[in-house]
Amino acid sequence: MKYDYLIVGSGLFGSICAYELKKRGYKILLIEKRDHLAGNIYTEDNEGIQVHKYGAHIFHTNNKAVWDYINRFAEFNRFTNSPIANYKNKLFNLPFNMNTFYQLWGVKTPKEAKAKIEEQKKLYHIENPKNLEEQAISLIGKDIYEILIKGYTEKQWGRKATELPPFIINRLPVRFTFDNNYFNDKYQGIPIGGYTQIIEKMLEGIDVELNTDFFENKEKNLELANKIIYTGSIDKFYDYQYGALEYRSLHFENETINESNYQGNAVINYTEYEIPYTRIIEHKHFDYVETDHTIITKEYPRDWKIGDEAYYPINDDKNATLFKKYKELADQEKLIHFGGRLAEYKYYDMHNVIENALNFINSIK
Ligand code: FAD
């Protein structure tokens, strides 16, 4: 055989595997069905602004080894995610912290904020929350729920909060400090010049074929290499024989605007139900670039059907059971490894994918 490994998919998982296996002397072919590299972390240069084409991507991790690893492929800036919520034209800081509590209730000290939250929770005696609405109110009270959670969540899931299961919100982190940093992680940033360069560097010197769908020539592709690393959808690999795993999808609407600064922040969430998008991203604020124009993206949650871009797996019992059946098939494969978010039907952040890919490579004898 010409190749030791066929890698299906040029996202973070496939590309790290390709890079690490090449270093170990293996001969690799990577195929990618899209017309570009990098999977969902793909960023496209638009006159100096790096546009995150598949949704805003902010790198964050507590794992120093992962941080050091990704920094080998690009220099990262000091971007700190501090999203803002817009509810009926009033602005609130996120995540829920002393700034938010001041904006909501005028409270100025942690003691006052804690008392206010307790008072709100006590207004409703919910012992066993039966749905997401009851769960959220029992955790945080009615004001925060109605202003900052309800509409956003209903748009995100396409269902009323009273029809959503309580487990979607297990806990709602609140901070009694004036700290708008969304992530608690030690390391955070955005690669200067975007994410695509990271994947390009990983794939230097590797045979890559774009616009090549594994399934268009499945039988031939299965014969191309001694082993396969597959990062596409697991249910599709098995011809949806048990049915399709479900997702939520997204629709992105990009707009170029002839002003240098549209909203003053990278991410603004729209938390009222009546506005159909969940957030507006202004890409230039990830990179701190100075240009006369700006590019914004409105993010609309969508129902998903086979053929649409799959973004968020639905973590309910039905899909968990279905995935288990596909996983049993995958576990029997001797020459094919299933990795990454689509093959494992799991929402992973980038740092999880790096860890998983490196663990997998290190497990190869
Ligand atoms: P992918 O990037 O999806 O790569 C899979 C690749 O395989 C794709 O290029 C696909 O085209 C290709 N492929 C699939 N099927 C075939 C086939 N049949 N033939 C050939 N090629 C195929 N993570 C963070 O850490 N921070 C964030 O801020 C963040 N924001 C996110 C925002 C959104 C809206 C979403 C959806 C995800 C976000 N993530 C974020 C998660 C991040 O996108 C993933 O962790 C990462 O992209 C997963 O990499 P992957 O290689 O597993 O999958």
Give an account of the 3D structure.
Belongs to the UDP-galactopyranose/dTDP-fucopyranose mutase family. Keywords: FAD, Flavoprotein, Isomerase. One of its GO terms (cellular component) is cytosol. The longest helix has 16 residues, at 142-157. Strands 7-6-12-13-14-11-15 form a seven-stranded mixed β-sheet. Strands 9-2-1-10-16 form a five-stranded parallel β-sheet, with helices on one face. Helix content is 32%, strand content 21%. It has twelve helices and 16 strands. The mean pLDDT is 96. Helix 1 (12-23) runs parallel beside helix 12 (350-363), helix 4 (110-122) crosses helix 5 (132-140) and helix 5 (132-140) packs antiparallel against helix 6 (142-157). With 365 residues, the chain is of the alpha/beta class. It has three domains: 3-80 and 192-246 and 310-363, Rossmann fold; 95-168, no CATH class; 250-303, no CATH class. A hairpin with an 8-residue loop joins strand 12 and strand 13 (279-282). Bound molecules: flavin-adenine dinucleotide. Flavin-adenine dinucleotide binds next to helix 1 and helix 12.
SSE blueprint:
Blueprint: E1 3-8, H1 12-23, E2 28-31, E3 43-46, E4 49-52, E5 59-61, H2 64-71, E6 84-87, E7 90-93, H3 98-105, H4 110-122, H5 132-140, H6 142-157, E8 187-189, H7 196-202, E9 207-209, H8 218-222, E10 225-230, H9 234-237, E11 247-257, E12 267-270, E13 279-282, H10 284-287, E14 294-303, E15 312-313, H11 317-332, E16 336-338, H12 350-363
Parallel strand pairs: 1-2, 1-10, 2-9, 6-12, 10-16
Antiparallel strand pairs: 3-4, 5-8, 6-7, 11-14, 11-15, 12-13, 13-14
Bound molecules: flavin-adenine dinucleotide.
Flavin-adenine dinucleotide is lined by residues 8-14, 31-34, 39-41, 55-59, 213-215, 231-232, 250, 311, 340-342, 348-351, 353.
